[in-house]
What we know:
Elements: E1 2-9, E2 13-20, E3 23-31, E4 34-37, E5 40-43, H1 45-60, E6 64-72, E7 77-81, E8 84-85, E9 89-90, H2 101-110, H3 113-116, H4 125-135, E10 143-146, H5 147-156, E11 160-162, H6 163-166, E12 172-173, E13 178-179, H7 181-186, E14 194-196, E15 201-205, E16 208-211, E17 214-215, H8 216-231, E18 236-242, E19 246-252, H9 255-264, E20 268-271, E21 277-283, H10 286-296, E22 316-319, E23 333-336, H11 344-370, E24 376-381, H12 388-398, E25 402-405, H13 410-423, H14 426-434, E26 438-441, H15 448-465
Parallel strand pairs: 1-6, 6-16, 6-17, 11-14, 18-24, 24-25
Antiparallel strand pairs: 1-2, 2-3, 4-5, 5-9, 7-8, 7-10, 12-13, 15-16, 18-19, 19-21, 20-21, 22-23, 25-26
Amino acid sequence: MDAYIGIDIGTTNSKCMIATTDGIVSVVAEPTPKCVKYGYVFFDIQRISEMVDFFICKASSGYKVKSIGFSSIGESVVPVLKGQAISDALMWDEKIPETDTKKIEILRTLCPYNIVGTKDNGLFSIHKILWMIREGLSDGAEGFLPVSSYLAYRKTGVSSWDFSQASRSFMFSVRNREWIPDLLETFGISQMPAIKPMGSFVGEKDGIVYGLGGHDHIVGMFGIERVFGRLFPGKSLFYTSMGTSEVMALRINKDSAIKNLCNSENGCIIPSNNNDFIITRSFRMFGRFLSRLMEMFRLPDFSSLPSSINGIIRCLFCCDGDFIMGNRGTGEINILGLPNGCSCTDVMEAAYVYLATVSELLRESIAKDTGTEKDFIIAAGGGITRNDCFMRVLSSAFSSPISVLDTSEISAFGAMLVGLSALQDKKAEESVLDTIGYTSVPVDSQLDVTISDAMSRYRLLRNKMFKIN
Length: 469
């Protein structure tokens, strides 16, 4: 039987999804191989490649694999030569101290927000590339590829980036949809591969078609849109990916909105297929925040988290990268107003409400900046979607039901559809999509007072931090 594979290389775990026209057959997960070198954490590209080959081999033992798509973290890049990596990839959140202030000034001059569609946070691919060049780790490289592109390149020999990964490079003009030539020339980056839309055909090897994937959050959106775009045509669709980090995303094709966004310098702008753009806001501490609290209270898994919210929350939070404190590069977590006698349950309930209200602040910001109408659909992904209590809190913060696919592995699902898109087998794609079910998490009116109180307190906190009148 024919099968279609999606492989997601994540920060903590990597997943392989196998689907047929009868639906999703299985999802296999393995820890993402990493190593420490030069005092930094790297993705171990050789072991990741072996893991991918294991996934493909296992699928091929029971099915005729027709297509494969990949998704991966952003920012991390692999220097390549003749079909192989010549160095491992720095972890996406490794921030390399920049010793050359002249280079920083050049980046500020050549990469303003209205060109690259984002603000520099010191994590983008350009910083990792310049460090690799400086340390001699990319000597002789014919180019650099994100992990998702490298995994297709090692099979096909074809090097390419998609728009979502290019937008995490800080070397890419979102309006012109091309690399910034002056920047490449200034920093001596000889050649960069072609940039294509997600889902494009990359190449074929051993009868398997490889599709062009991209940044895991946006690959997830690629899958979400194919499901809910059919069910709710014409409606604005927000997608929130809730993993190690959270990205809130909305697709638009309003040129006037793009101009407004460039003037506001708020969030990220990612070109997409045709003339569309994907507008995002993110919170990179989302899953890490919850994990650190669970470690603090020695909670083993989600099953030990609260199953209900009882009244007004007893403390507030703010974290590096949220929509309250802003991006400061510190990785800090702050617990505010913690009263005496506050229990573990009280703190975790407050954590649920914090994550939910931060998510709504992200969505609200996108809606305001793009002029999106109130009649919208919102879909969510990530392992936490299996937690009923949190999802009820989240839907109440959004004041809208949340659509959740039957699979929580949204990036692997999107990657599977990336491969199917490249295969250009519309009949098979429609058959797979017909098998995908979803549930709708309703708004819990009993949480109205809790959410309203928390939202007011977090807005006030944000206004004080940014001195907004």
